[in-house]
Design goal:
Layout: H1 11-18, H2 29-43, H3 54-68, H4 72-80
């Protein structure tokens, strides 16, 4: 029985990803709000602050935030997710 192969990103994988068309995702606004909150929370994790993917995650979160900010209250709620002071205990 052979040892499992650990998948690793290769230069061919990177090239294939760069050649793909943009990803388009459809979801309802409630799911988008939950995804925004998850990305905001994850961005504050100590390991995430050192992650190469943080920049892309935050960019995605900001795009979702722009989409959801259709009222002043939603705009404030979306922005509050970036601020630990605004967290509400469960």
């Amino acid at each position: 029985m052979s040892a499992p192969v650990r998948p690793e990103m290769t230069s061919a994988d990177i090239q294939a990803l760069q050649e793909m068309p943009p990803l388009k995702i459809e979801m309802d606004a409630g799911a988008a709000f939950e995804l925004l909150a998850t990305l905001q929370l994850a961005s504050r994790h100590p390991v995430a602050s050192r992650s190469q993917t943080l920049k892309h995650s935050c960019a995605l979160a900001r795009e979702i935030q722009k989409y959801l900010s259709v009222t002043e209250n939603l705009k404030a709620l979306c922005e509050a997710g970036w601020k630990p002071k605004s967290d509400v205990p469960l």
